[in-house]
Design brief:
Layout lengths: L2 E4 L2 E5 L3 H9 L5 E6 L2 H13 L5 E2 H8 L3 H14 L3 E3 L3 E4 L1 H5 L1 H8 L1
Antiparallel strand pairs: 1-2, 2-3, 4-6, 5-6
Length: 112
């Protein structure tokens, strides 16, 4: 089913379109699962999605938004993947290298 994420809360609607429609028509919520994410979980998920962007993650903006330094959350994973040539780190950004783009799922698993 459709999922949404707003203000730190992840929601998922019923997978069955028929069930979803019946619930909505009955005036019931189509939401079957709702989870409020802890601040660290939100920050880690932001790393995962941010690394998939071509520009990567702006380190200052990340810290301002989530209250964590990237290294505070994933020091070992960042260092290991930079040394392996899968991540590139500058004073301002953290991003996947060309090789890292091919192995993005592995990099993400390390960060989690």
């Amino acid at each position: 089913g459709a999922a949404s994420y707003l203000n730190g809360v992840r929601r998922q609607n019923h997978r069955s379109v028929i069930t979803w429609l019946k619930r909505v028509q009955a005036g019931d919520s189509p939401i079957v699962d709702q989870e409020e994410l802890a601040p660290e979980t939100r920050a880690r998920e932001a790393i995962i999605f941010g690394l998939r962007r071509r520009a990567g993650i702006n380190r200052r903006e990340f810290q301002e938004r989530y209250g964590f330094d990237l290294h505070q959350l994933s020091e070992t994973a960042i260092r290991t993947n930079v040394e392996a040539g899968l991540l590139e780190e500058t004073d301002t950004h953290l991003k996947l290298t060309k090789a890292g783009c091919l192995l993005a799922d592995s990099v993400v698993v390390d960060i989690l």
